[in-house]
Every structure is written in structure tokens, then in C-alpha cells.
Amino acid sequence: MRSIPVDTSSATLLVTKLPEVKVRDRQTGEVAVDPVTNDRLMVLELVFIAEGGSDMIKVTVPEKGVGQGLVMGAPVFLSGLVARPWESEFGGRARHGIAYRADAVMVGTPAAVQG
User: pTM for this one?
Assistant: First the structure.
């Protein structure tokens, strides 16, 4: 699956739903884990504000990458954010979308680059 890096340096990201354990299978309650590290995955919702507009996005983050102090409305930054296009068929209907995954989510804004 192709991963596309997402530049958030000129965007504002605000928490709209606090992290919850990501469920892989709703029928069995199986929790989603990273296939490489076996870390439990969390999902949170953010409003992504950039270029005069905004979008709601869901971002998956490993549990150990969830920073302290996340509260509703808090400005955050994401480390290693990528977008992954997906498509599947469910009930005879083709579905598609974009899945967002980050290495970490932290309260605040990233430090300015020194140079």
C-alpha cells in the first residue's frame, strides 16, 4: 500500500475526539495492533485547518505515541503523518477513502526549525 507523506507545517490541528483503542473487528471486539511492533493502535479525530478551509480527519497512532495532556480542542502536532489511499468492496458496493497514520501525536506546536 502506498504511503504519501503529509506536510502539516502550515496547518492547525485541533483535537475533536480523544484517542480510543482502535477495533479491528467490530463483531469480535478484536483490538487493532501494529503488524511490525505488535503495539496496540489508537484512533483520534482532529480538525485539520489549512488554506482557508477545514476537514475532519481520523488518525491512527500507536498507543506509545500518544502524548500526555491531550484534551478536547487542544492544538496538536503529528510526527510522521502519512496518508494511505484504500478501497474495498463491502456488501457488493465499492468503497474508498484515505487512512491517516502518524508515529506520534503531541500537545502544542512543533518547535521552529533553527537554521
Answer: 0.86
The CA radius of gyration of the chain, in Å to the nearest whole number, is 15
Answer yes or no: are the C-beta atoms of 6 and 81 closer than 8 Å: yes
Contacts of 17 (CB under 8 A, 6+ apart): 44, 45, 72
Please determine, for residue 114, whether its predicted confidence score (pLDDT) is greater than 50.
Answer: no
The pLDDT tens digits for 2-35 are 899 999 999 999 999 999 999 998 889 899 999 9
For 103-114, b/e burial (b = at least 16 CB within 10 A) is ebbbeeeeeeee
Could you tell me which of 99, 106, 115, 110 has the C-alpha nearest to residue 6?
A: 99
Contact 62, 95 (CB under 8 A): no
